[in-house]
Amino acid sequence: MKKNKIIKIGVVFVVFLLLVVVYLLLKGHNQEAEKQADETSENVIIDIKAEDIKDLSFTIKNEQMRFIKDQDNWTLDQDDDFPVDSEQMTVLTDALSNVSASRTLENVDDLGEYGLLEPSNKITITQTSGDSTSITIGNTNSVTGECYIYLNNDVKVVYTVDGDLATVFNGSLMNYAVETSYPTITGSNITDIKIESRERTDYIANDDSSSTGWMITEADGQMKEADSEAVAALQSTIAGLTFSNYYEYNCKDLSKYGLDNPYAVITATYTEQSQTEEDTAGTETEETTMVEKQVKIVVGNEDGNGNRYVQVNDLKEVHGIAVDSINSLIDTEESSYENKESGTIDTSAVESLDIVMNNETHTFLIESSDDENQETKYFLDDQEIEASQYSEIYAKISSLGNQGEVTEQKDVVGNPEITIIYHLKGGTVKEVSYIAYDNNFYVEVTPENETQYLVNKMKVKELIETAQATFPEIFKVSE
């Protein structure tokens, strides 16, 4: 009994000792935390609230620039017309709140050791109360990332503070200017594009008469069908351009940037939804209309940092756009935009189709019902045929393609072996003939004498043979 009692007393005593130890540890931890909090509070060397700042000056490219605040608006003392970005100024004023020093170096004899004899910046803050504070910034420590400063005229005391203080006050004057953004454009809403360079001019525009919906107009007025995928890529590139730099807000000397004699001019017309309008009674209406707009990009010299100088829509601002983005528009070969399937048209655009062989014309007619089933019927010379028969013929037509332009100046002699006349929805008629050229190719020609293309001889033969095999009584083999 006595032994059990002694054990219980021993356990209670041990628990008591543990509680005492825990208490002492917690007390010590709290005292240390309070001490650190006091030390942190004591290390705050600058704490100026944004609302208390009247004006702010600092060094930009070796010149002291002064920004003056009037309520929430800022102006540049050296240029009243400068479009100061208030949001960017807020970044600066916020950086002056609660600046703490991690180290304090007293009785400093050599400011040069810290880069303070030739400071990187000098910030002067004037408060609404009339008080003034200056911050002289020296080197940034390459190990800690902190910068050295001294306050006002107290050159004997140097502090190390977070390097962000030096960073936010570093840059060009245009960092503090409101910038006009590149227009927001939906690529598919671009309806025509004109690219003028020193070598040539490309004009690509919507055209319902084209099987692809796009035509290229050359300098001599000749027109070619444009490849819809190539145009879509062009639309996307123009819509996706962004400014990579901002050099000047009110340029008066375009020659500095090569904009007086442009490297190129890119003009794109596009549509966008109009803003909500008011009727005559002053009531807002929800009617949405599409309005036509234009973006004009004048391209100048390279800036040496991977950009070209540009002006957009005749604004006086000078911006930069990446060289690679500009070159993808300007340096592309003209032939890259051409429709390589120039002799074929999407079947969905076709209302009827004439095939001329052996001086005989035979007509395929496509009729689609207006009911919910939207049944489509196919006819050849007024006789209904199977959809698969028409599809087999049209597949051969679509596969013709071409092997590029005829480069040799050679007269095409002889009658067409086959001519295809497309009657498109909307009333457009397109005629393409295939005439023997040499042992390997036919030449694809049109009545408009557009560019002639070489077409693989075997593909034309396959089309003719398929027509003859599918409808032997109609497309008879010539003797």
Keywords:
34% strand; 479 residues; 7 helices; 26 strands; 3 domains; Immunoglobulin-like
Indicate the CATH architecture of the largest domain. Answer: Sandwich
Low-pLDDT runs of 5+ residues are 33-41
Radius of gyration: 39 Å
**Total count of helical runs of at least 4 residues:** 7
The domain tally reads 3
Roughly how many Å apart are the termini?
A: 132 Å
Looking at CATH, which topology of the largest domain would you report? Immunoglobulin-like
How many distinct beta strands?
26
Strand order of the largest sheet: 1-5-9-8-7-6-2-3-4
Strand content bin: 25-35%
Q: Care to describe what's here?
A:
By secondary structure, this protein is of the alpha+beta class. It folds into 3 domains: 131 residues; 138 residues, Immunoglobulin-like; 124 residues, Dna Ligase, domain 1. The protein is built from 7 helices and 26 strands. The strands form 3 sheets. Strands 1-5-9-8-7-6-2-3-4 form a 9-stranded antiparallel beta sheet. Strand 24 and strand 25 form a beta hairpin. The protein starts with a helix and ends in a 9-residue tail after the last helix.
